Amino acid sequence: MAPISLGYSPCPNDTYIFYGLVHNKIEGAPQFTEVLEDIETLNTMATNNQLDMTKISFHALGHLRDRYCLLHSGGALGRGCGPLVISREPLAPEDLAHKKIAIPGKLTTAALLLQLFDHNIQNLVVLPFHEIMSATQSGDVDAGLIIHESRFTYPDYGLHKVIDLGEWWESATGHPIPLGGILARRDLGSEIIQKIDQSLRASVEFAHSNPNAVKNYIRQHAQEMDENVMQQHIDLYVNDYTLDYSTDGEAAITDLYHRAEVANIIPPSDLPIFMS
Questions:
Q1: Are 262 and 64 in contact (CB under 8 A)?
Q2: On the CB side of 23, how many CA atoms lie within 13 Å of its CA?
Q3: Distance from first CA to last CA of the chain, Å, rounded?
Q4: CB-count exposure of residue 205 (10 Å: 0-12, 13-18, 19+)
Q5: Total domain count for the chain?
Q6: Which residues does the annotation mark as catalytic?
Q7: Which of 173, 194, 216 is the last residue of a domain?
Q8: pLDDT tens readout for residues 171-183
Q9: Are residues 93 and 70 in the same domain?
Q10: pLDDT digits (tens, 9 = 90+) for 93-107
Q11: Are 42 and 64 in a shared domain?
Q12: Which of 171, 174, 209, 252 has the most CB atoms lying inside 10 A of its own CB?
């Protein structure tokens, strides 16, 4: 069997999760060829059918359910971990419909949550996520939609929080926030997908049991990140849902897709989201 192409980001939660898989720590696991890119690049690569297995935004998967299925482990779901809208000058959330807003990608779940919050928000500019705070600070845009470790560091830029879209989602639905998941191509077949799914869970368990073993790999890909911020990132995005979505997590994903379908943001699908 040829190696499985595996895409994930250099963010600490991803390198934590995939260390075991790509360093041959999981007995009986298939061979993987890793592709490290930012989440929006991975979304695009999956859209173009370039990866067998990848981390992806739940928003992007909503457009790809005919070709890809979701795996049970490795996802980023949680509470208190949603994207924030920030601005240089204080703004009210209802003002955002008339503002120019930088987003980290059209297919990010952050962008989907922003559209679900207010469908009148239309003036969106895509920037790499690490440039959004600088663009907001300089006045190139009126506001920015930030993800990842930016939620810990935006006060250092003198920026103001307009709305926490994670808090909004939790208040509106009662569900945890579905941000990103791991998917596999449906045409790999159920037997291989089940093996990948089991190996992925084992990789998460390996990291939980061997946190010191994975630290250097995480640090290698988070070169400029402060050690405390790196650990905050892992603590925020790696949780019980990372091992298994459970009924609670699956209900959150189902609700997200229902709302996005009703809003005509993603196409409807009758296929089950999981294959194994």
A1: no
A2: 17
A3: 20
A4: middle
A5: 2
A6: 148
A7: 173
A8: 999 999 999 999 9
A9: no
A10: 999 999 999 999 999
A11: yes
A12: 252
